């Protein structure tokens, strides 16, 4: 299909640009009476002056198309550049740009276009009208996308390794919004075609002898009863050009957005289900477009009232199985075998599948925060347009440990990871869906919140509903599920103690008087924090208490309201822009969200090579040569260097983000829930890696909800009621900052 589209687009562009050479007659010469119907020598008849319609049609698209393309490029370039500036700037420049765009959009476009048509030459009028009508919309759209990208893990990582803002915009932000920018360019092109045609039809276009499609529309409208083809031909050509442009933009190949590592194993069901009830999957098989097996012969049966869990290693295909069952496989994957039934009937495909999912299914994806509309409040997001009692939604949020009084009117970007996860779960649970699918629902939850989720799932047991839980946490799966299905090796080693050489006494980080605040209120009041070389300090606390904000403050991404810090005995500026290259390299941050950690436009090898080249000063060639070793360091196959983030599992993306941080060879690693998306074996490997690095002097500040991970730390700090409560099993010598305070 794509090859046909490419061929058609190429042929059409060729005809539009060089069609005059194919014209059987001189487009300006009269060959007969006006508006003669189609006949020999004139397949489309003649126009108002007896000229050959086909010849004028072939010659009339070049200048029109080129003028529309120039206008579209100008409008798209201005809109994109303005959007980059407005989206990145938090201050007055961004507000001024957005205000100017809104002012232009408030002016009646038809009136503005007519003024431009009268005041300017035809080509300039088309360009000016396209810019005035299209650039403000492009600025608004691009600005919103840039604001979203600015808070992503890959942009923050680039800033954290010292890249300047123009480089970040060009190398990280622009590639990530390239699809939207391309769509905007096509929209502006179609808009310019419409404006140019309208101007010509109103008499503001080229002269009457010009073989222009817009001019042909104006000239041949009176002769429709005599020769309809004289009007239909240019109208059809304009429509065909616009539709082809739109199809070409939509036909740009998108990378597979969820292809996991290949999984050739089988998963069988230990207890057959009732084929006439619940969910029944037999012999499910999934392959790539190239014929490589991703999932082979999976069977799954879930009776009404049951909770069934799928577990297995990261990249083992758990998410792919469920997406195949629901008919949600991403581009690049296809179901090649198997029978999927719901209540004894085959699960439909295509549009019918969408209707089936709306009627029966609720899905909580791996990235719950990304599924929440940033424009909706928590209350509206949970209700999700359904006519259900608000009291039920509030009660459900409360049962999941959320304060509805504080969160009901809050938007998604003001939620912690654990809060967003529970809001998404509440949205799915509300209305008691017949089929509930939860993909890694425990990754951002503390023990108290996890217990509440388990209680909510327990209430679905024994009724008529079906629940499928995907989790790498086998202990959680065993507690909530009636049966557990293994995808991959059935045994997994437990997460070990972190080990390492332990603290050496030489201070790496000394921070005091920390005051952290968010819009939601004060998070930390006067906190003290000290890390020595080789030390692993774990930070625990309830979801939303400020653990991530603490790490982001130390990383220079969220400067504290007050406080001071020393890094290796030198003052550490709070803002990234004030830190020198050595300080930027020395402190690296790994964010919690693996879905937003990597730029979807860059291959893994490109992302890691850029980090290596920037922080180590290595040449690009040498940095590329070091990528395989860096991937092996975090337990990944070097072959993954050629994949994009959408082709990796959540656990694989998390390890790539860790590898990117380690590329800088930091002395302090700030890690936010880096094991939350990993199965037990992978988490053990990451912690063993950290132990090896700590033996070389790396200090690690790790936020975690996992009690086993926290037990492996040298010290545990609990963030609770705006204080950092420390339990210190190891003796520690007074820090330099403490000496200064005593003096």
Quick overview:
The protein is of the alpha/beta class and 743 residues long.
Can you give a write-up of this model?
The protein is an alpha/beta fold and 743 residues long. Helix content is 45%, strand content 16%. It contains 28 helices and 19 strands. The strands form four sheets. Strands 15-16-17-12-18-19 form a six-stranded mixed β-sheet, with helices on both faces. A five-stranded parallel β-sheet has the order 6-7-8-3-9, with helices on both faces. Strands 2-1-4-5 form a four-stranded antiparallel β-sheet, covered by helices on one side. Helix 3 (62-88) packs antiparallel against helix 4 (92-106) and helix 7 (153-160) packs antiparallel against helix 8. The longest helix has 29 residues, at 122-150. The protein is globular, with a radius of gyration of 31 Å.
Q: What key attributes describe this structure?
A:
743 residues, alpha/beta, 6-stranded mixed sheet, 5-stranded parallel sheet, 28 helices, 16% strand, disordered C terminus
Major sheet attributes: 6 strands, mixed
Helices and strands: which structural class?
Answer: alpha/beta
Could you tell me how far the N terminus lies from the C terminus, measured between alpha carbons in angstroms?
Answer: 76 Å
Number of helices: 28
Q: Based on CA inertia axes, which overall geometry fits? A: globular
Number of E strands:
19
Give the helices and strands, then pairings.
Layout: H1 2-18, H2 53-59, H3 62-88, H4 92-106, H5 109-119, H6 122-150, H7 153-160, H8 165-176, H9 178-201, H10 213-220, H11 229-250, E1 279-288, E2 293-302, E3 307-311, H12 318-326, E4 333-342, E5 345-346, H13 351-360, E6 361-364, H14 368-371, H15 378-383, H16 390-399, H17 404-407, H18 417-429, E7 435-439, H19 447-458, E8 466-470, H20 474-480, E9 483-486, E10 507-518, E11 521-532, E12 536-540, H21 547-554, E13 562-567, E14 570-571, H22 581-586, E15 587-590, H23 604-616, H24 620-633, H25 650-662, E16 668-672, H26 680-695, E17 699-703, H27 707-711, E18 715-720, E19 723-727, H28 736-742
Parallel strand pairs: 3-8, 3-9, 6-7, 7-8, 12-17, 12-18, 15-16, 16-17
Antiparallel strand pairs: 1-2, 1-4, 4-5, 10-11, 10-13, 13-14, 18-19
């Amino acid at each position: 299909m794509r090859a046909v589209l490419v061929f058609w687009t190429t042929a059409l562009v060729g005809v539009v640009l060089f069609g005059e050479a194919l014209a059987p007659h001189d487009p300006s010469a009269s060959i007969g009476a006006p508006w003669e119907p189609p006949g020999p020598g004139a397949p489309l008849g003649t126009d108002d002056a007896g000229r050959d319609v086909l010849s004028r049609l072939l010659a009339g698209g070049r200048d029109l198309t080129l003028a529309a393309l120039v206008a579209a490029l100008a409008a798209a370039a201005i809109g994109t550049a303005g959007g980059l500036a407005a989206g990145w700037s938090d201050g007055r420049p961004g507000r001024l740009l957005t205000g100017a765009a809104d002012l232009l959009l408030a002016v009646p476009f038809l009136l503005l276009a007519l003024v431009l048509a009268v005041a300017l030459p035809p080509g300039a009028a088309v360009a000016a009208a396209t810019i005035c009508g299209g650039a403000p919309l492009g600025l608004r759209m691009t600005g919103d996308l840039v604001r979203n990208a600015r808070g992503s893990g890959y942009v923050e990582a680039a800033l954290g390794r010292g890249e300047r803002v123009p480089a970040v915009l060009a190398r990280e932000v622009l590639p990530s919004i390239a699809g939207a920018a391309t769509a905007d360019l096509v929209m502006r092109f179609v808009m310019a075609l419409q404006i140019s045609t309208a101007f010509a039809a109103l008499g503001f276009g080229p002269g009457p002898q010009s073989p222009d499609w817009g001019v042909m529309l104006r000239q041949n409208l009176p002769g429709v009863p005599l020769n309809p083809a004289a009007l239909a031909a240019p109208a059809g050509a304009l429509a065909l050009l616009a539709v082809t442009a739109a199809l070409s933009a939509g036909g740009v190949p998108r990378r597979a957005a969820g292809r996991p590592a290949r999984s050739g194993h089988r998963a069988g069901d230990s207890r057959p289900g009732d084929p006439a009830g619940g969910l029944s999957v037999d012999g499910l098989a999934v392959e790539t477009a190239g014929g490589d097996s991703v999932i082979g012969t999976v069977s799954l049966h879930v009776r009404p009232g049951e909770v069934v869990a799928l577990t297995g290693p990261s990249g083992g295909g758990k998410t792919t199985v469920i997406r195949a069952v629901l008919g949600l496989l991403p581009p690049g994957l296809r179901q090649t075998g198997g029978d999927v039934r719901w209540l004894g009937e085959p699960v439909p495909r295509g549009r019918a599948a969408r209707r089936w999912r709306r009627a029966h299914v609720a899905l909580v994806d791996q990235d719950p925060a990304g599924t929440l509309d940033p424009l909706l409040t928590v209350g509206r997001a949970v209700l999700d347009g359904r006519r259900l009692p608000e009291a039920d939604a509030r009660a459900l949020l409360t049962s999941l440990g959320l304060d509805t009084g504080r969160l009901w009117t809050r938007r998604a970007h003001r939620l912690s990871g654990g809060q967003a996860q529970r809001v998404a779960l509440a949205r799915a649970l509300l209305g008691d869906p017949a089929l509930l699918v939860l993909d890694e629902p425990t990754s951002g939850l503390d023990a108290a919140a996890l217990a509440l989720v388990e209680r909510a799932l327990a209430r679905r047991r024994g009724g008529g509903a079906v629940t499928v839980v995907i989790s790498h946490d086998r202990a959680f799966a065993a507690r909530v599920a009636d049966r557990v299905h293994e995808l991959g090796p059935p045994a997994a080693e437990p997460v070990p103690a972190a080990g390492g050489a332990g603290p050496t006494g030489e201070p790496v980080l000394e921070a005091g008087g920390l005051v952290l605040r968010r819009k939601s209120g004060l998070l930390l009041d006067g906190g003290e924090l000290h890390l020595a070389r080789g030390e692993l300090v774990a930070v625990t606390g309830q979801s939303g208490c400020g653990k991530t904000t603490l790490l982001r403050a130390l990383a220079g991404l969220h400067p504290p309201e007050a406080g001071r810090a020393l890094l290796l005995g030198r003052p550490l500026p709070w803002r990234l822009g004030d830190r020198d290259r050595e300080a930027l390299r020395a402190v690296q941050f790994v964010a919690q969200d693996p879905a937003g950690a990597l730029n979807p436009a860059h291959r893994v090898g490109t992302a890691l090579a850029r980090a290596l080249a920037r922080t180590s000063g290595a040449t690009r060639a040498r940095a590329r040569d070091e990528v395989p070793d860096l991937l092996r360091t975090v337990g990944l196959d070097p072959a993954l260097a050629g994949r994009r983030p959408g082709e990796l599992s959540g656990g694989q993306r998390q390890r790539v983000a860790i590898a990117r941080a380690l590329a800088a060879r930091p002395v302090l690693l700030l890690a936010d829930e880096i094991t939350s998306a990993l199965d037990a074996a992978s988490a053990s490997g990451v912690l063993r890696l950290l132990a090896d690095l700590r033996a070389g002097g790396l200090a690690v500040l790790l936020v975690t909800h996992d009690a086993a991970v926290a037990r492996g730390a040298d010290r545990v700090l609990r963030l609770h009621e705006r204080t950092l409560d420390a339990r210190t099993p190891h003796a520690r010598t007074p820090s330099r900052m403490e000496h200064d305070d005593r003096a």
